[in-house]
Amino acid sequence: MILLNDFxxxxxxxxxxxxxxxxxxxxxxxxxxxxxxxRFEQDLAHYVNAKWAIGCGNGMDAIEIALRTLQLRPxxxxxxxxxxxxxxxxxxxxxxxxPVYVDVDPCGQIDLTLVEQLLQQDITIRFIVxxxxxxxxxxxxxxxxxxxKYHLIIVEDCAQAIGATYGNKLVGSVGHLSAVSFYPxxxxxxxxxxxxxxxxxQLLEKQVRMYRDYGQSKKYIHSVVGxxxxxxxxxxxxxxxxxxxxxxxxxxxxxxxxDFYYSHIKNKNIVLLPVDTRARSTWHLFPVxxxxxxxxxxxxxxxxxxQTGIHYPVLASDQKACASFPKISVSGKLTKAKxxxxxxxxxxxxxxxxxxEVSEVVRIVNNWK
Length: 369
Ligand SMILES: *Cc1c(COP(=O)(O)O)cnc(C)c1O
Known about the structure:
By secondary structure, the protein is an alpha/beta fold. The protein has 13 helices and 16 strands.
């Protein structure tokens, strides 16, 4: 079976170095918020070209912490996409906000033209959480223009897109704050849960540090109602190694596989996304749109040894949890997002795929009728 993720191959590749990193932490006798976390935070800030980065418990907390730090008011609207991991919506709700969903573009990314129309209709809206879904960066020049023109407060959800660029801009460079997840399947994955927030304003750095650690400004002094969302030393040590030694080559491998898929998948019923030439995706996932029966295509792939996935089958706005949260609002019809929810299939694209496996995926996909 050609898998969507292959952690056993990863372990074979990096076993020795991760065991060494673990031993270093065990010998140190220090397990939460220490030197390993500080070092990883510095390296991460450098990688994403931010002034600072702060590790936290997971990607969902990272978004919540960012919104709280930017002083989202209780009951305030937050523009976001319905097509994403539900964690994006959960974080907005947990931070006290009300999601306002906007439809996506042909690449499955929040449609910034519709966002601008909404901002003109409703001048009370200040916040947006855009998602760089699948690793495809949204148009950061357009986002930056909206930021200036409408004084938008932006938290970029970079969970799937660390390292992606649009033109000369890195994802996570336009938002006031940016959030990332190191869930094991992500391009930079921990061996458990982890996440981070990064930014460039010093004042915000202090606040983020407070929010991740009980809202403490000093030991036993609680200035805000914070979270317990600390990064532990073990995950930080493992993440630091992955960042230093592997992230760039993992991304390059994903991009090579994607290039191969783009030049070799030729089946009129399998539509590849029309990614903007200025967007350099990190291909966390490789989505295609199926014309015809998605179920049939997925069963056929499975029967032929290719695992596939769906990202995502249910829009955030259609989740049961949202039905009990009546203030949630939807701007427009979400027609394209619904199309993705019912027609998208993700093909394998992890860095440990062999060339033979990539060719085999192409052969299987091209032979589907
Ligand atoms: C994974 C993910 C999250 C949540 O990250 P966790 O670490 O699982 O909390 C948020 N947004 C997107 C787009 C994600 O892919």
